[in-house]
Design brief:
3 domains; rod-shaped; five-stranded antiparallel beta sheet; six-stranded mixed beta sheet; disordered C terminus; about 500 residues; 13 strands
């Protein structure tokens, strides 16, 4: 719910409560005032009657005399005989209208006058009942003087209706007016939101929120946000420049390091070949060297082998960094229609020669006959080799299996191993750069960049990867790539 609507509801509710209290007070004021006026009229007649009776009534009463009152409202009089428990007499207007008041009510107060409201023949009346006491101090008669209150009831009904309708109308008008005023008052905030969204959806942090001339809270908020945006722009530009510098450094360093590493690897291989004849090849024409010289040459061979291994590892790291630098720089792969069957078969053949301890399991991949993917063949091979090498690395014993799943519009390449597996909470982080599971740190070689490169290649080919793993039971990576063209429509899995 928007602030504008909440403000409108709050003020409308407050106005409704005020109108309810005011209307109720006005209604009850008019109600009690009209009742008091009728009581005053009835009390005047009762006062006259009591003055005539002087407390000990022994005469007679004529009801019509009380109706000839100087009061504005016409009164109706009924004389009730207490001794015989019946109506003794009525005023002529009651006889003419065939009216009859109910029996007098009993009241315990010493006051000889009692007021109450009754309905006679569906007409509302206010009764003033007066006890007339005889010489023996017993109540002989009760005089019931009634005033018709139908006009007051109609007046109160009309007043109540007017108050309800006018209050509802006032609340609706106030709500509509409040909504318009709230919209006008909050329009500067809408400008702030609109400008903030433009900054959020775009990359131009130089955009500023328009400043109004008023120096109110909205103006202060605008100034604060513009100041914050200025600081963010400065920090973003500095961070972007540092990121670009780092990216250029990684790219340039990767390029520069490839040449000396290649030279180091070539020279080490040359030195290893040159040192082998000194040790002999096992035939009868071995050169004669001393035991000390042979030990020195063997140590040199071991040192050169370590240098060669580290040079290979550094070359792999440099190549990975160069690939990620290209990805960060927005490198666009050259793509074409690629036959997946030849790619998978070539990778399976070459994977047999990778360093491994696990058994390499392949299948017949005829299901890929005619299946093409729009992509880069070199990067697709690199993608599969990353997952296969990763499976060999973390499978000290068991099997590594490559199978293929083909759907209607996608082809899935599934690399399954029976290695150490991973914890479930580690899966979301395995494609982060330099991330390696805790169990593998210090136990297996690697830089933690392979899966990051694989994720980049998959994204560039509009694919996705599914990971299924269980600690101690191995992992399964399924790479799904969109099919560009296929002569077969059936789906299945080849094993």
């Amino acid at each position: 719910m928007s602030i504008r609507l909440r403000l409108t509801l709050w003020f409308s509710g407050l106005l409704a409560v005020i109108l309810l209290l005011f209307g109720s007070a006005l209604y009850f004021y008019v109600y009690f005032n009209s009742n008091n006026e009728v009581k005053a009229q009835l009390g005047e007649s009762a006062k006259q009657l009591l003055q005539e009776s002087r407390g000990d009534w022994s005469g007679s009463i004529r009801p019509d005399r009380l109706t000839n009152s100087t009061l504005q409202s016409e009164l109706y009089v009924q004389l009730f005989n207490v001794q015989y428990n019946n109506i003794q007499d009525k005023s002529s207007n009651m006889l003419q209208n065939n009216l009859q008041f109910p029996k007098p009510a009993d009241w315990d107060t010493p006051d000889p006058i009692h007021y109450r409201t009754v309905k006679t023949s569906g007409n509302p009346f206010m009764l003033c009942e007066i006890k007339l006491v005889g010489l023996d101090q017993n109540v002989v008669y009760i005089v019931q003087i009634g005033a018709y209150t139908g006009s007051q009831a109609e007046y109160l009904y009309d007043l109540r209706t007017i108050l309800i309708i006018s209050s509802l109308a006032a609340v609706l008008i106030a709500a509509a007016t409040g909504l318009l005023l709230a919209r006008k008052a909050l329009r500067p905030i809408e400008n702030v939101i609109s400008a903030s969204r433009q900054i959020e959806t775009g990359s131009d942090l130089s955009h500023r929120i328009p400043r109004l001339q008023t120096n109110d809270e909205i103006g202060t908020l605008t100034d604060t946000l513009n100041g914050m945006l200025s600081k963010l722009e400065t920090a973003y530009n500095e961070l972007d420049e540092a990121y670009n510098s780092q990216r250029r450094f990684v790219s340039d360093a990767s390029h520069e390091l490839r040449t000396p590493l290649t030279t180091i690897r070539g020279n080490i291989e040359l030195l290893q070949r040159m040192s082998r004849p000194a040790l002999g090849d096992g035939s009868g024409s071995e050169p004669v060297v001393s035991e000390l010289e042979a030990e020195r040459i063997a140590m040199s061979q071991e040192a050169m082998q370590d240098i060669a291994d580290e040079a290979i590892r550094m070359s792999r790291l440099v190549n990975d960094l160069l690939s990620l630098a290209r990805a960060d720089a927005g490198f666009v792969m050259e793509k074409s229609e690629v036959e997946m069957l030849s790619i998978v078969e070539d990778v399976c053949r070459r994977a047999q020669h990778l360093p491994r301890k696990a058994e390499w399991v392949t299948h017949d991949y005829g299901i890929l006959e005619g299946v093409t993917v729009y992509g880069n063949p070199d990067y697709l091979r690199q993608l599969l080799f990353i997952f296969i090498e990763n499976a060999f690395k973390y499978t000290p014993s068991g099997t590594v299996d490559l199978s293929v799943i083909k759907g209607e519009d996608r082809v899935g390449i599934m690399i399954k191993d029976t290695g150490i597996g991973m914890k479930r909470e580690e899966v979301p982080s395995i494609f982060d750069r330099f991330y390696r599971a805790d169990e593998s740190r210090g136990k297996t070689s690697g830089t933690g960049l392979g899966l990051s490169i694989a994720k980049w290649i998959i994204d560039e080919h509009n694919g996705f990867v599914e990971v299924t793993t269980r600690e101690g039971a191995g992992s399964t990576f399924t790479v799904w790539l969109p099919v560009s063209f296929s002569r077969h429509s059936e789906s299945g899995i080849m094993e």
